[in-house]
Amino acid sequence: MTTKDRALDAYLVASARLGDRRAMAQLVELRGPRLLSHASRLLGEHDGARDVVQEAWIEILRGLKGLRDESLFLPWALRIVTRRVAREIGRRQKGRRLAAAVKAEADPVVSDAGPEEADAARVRAAIATLSPAQAATVALFYLEDLSVTEVATALDVPVGTVKTRLMHARRKLRAELEGQGYEQT
Questions:
Q1: Model confidence, pTM
Q2: Region 29-35: what's the mean pLDDT?
Q3: Quick check: helix, strand or coil at residue 181?
């Protein structure tokens, strides 16, 4: 996240705390897609993720007064979504491991795709082989551009756990991609 994004979050959170409904709506519009994407990755389905995020927004908006640093809104909100998803998975699976509940997104490879699309498809397929915890960590760190500390906050795990997951995920991704004949430039 850029400094500009953090400043905008801080402004919108401060305004929403004062009861500004437009600021609340802007927060939902601005950060809703990222929360939905995160929930979809963890839950493995879009419809269920949408329901979880709607429930999370109620908790997020009610909890704004307790947020100490307004510029850390996104990691804080992601943590709420993560916890909601975990509860949903627990309800669905009743004791099964999170890995069994989160499905990898299938990405069909189109034969007439260009080299960039083919590379992206191979990377997505490689990410799909990771455990759900590693895939979520990789997605937040690389795709959502969160810092290690923000990923730890979002996933509600220690910073060391994030670093370890990233290390193991990179190793697995490298092995998977090299096994597919992927050449790094």
A1: 0.62
A2: 92
A3: coil
Contact 131, 101 (CB under 8 A): no
Nearest CA to 39 out of 84, 96, 95, 90 is that of: 84
Q: Which two tokens stand for residue 13?
A: 């959170």
Question: Among 102, 122, 157, which residue terminates a domain?
Answer: 102
Query: How much is the pLDDT for 140?
Result: 85
Q: Side chain identity at 75, as an amino acid letter?
A: P
Are residue 94 and residue 8 in the same domain, yes or no? yes
CB 85 within 8 A of CB 21: no
For residue 181, the model assigns a pLDDT of 53
**144 and 178 inside one domain:** yes
Are 56 and 84 spatial neighbours (Cβ–Cβ below 8 Å)?
Answer: yes
Domain count, the chain: 2
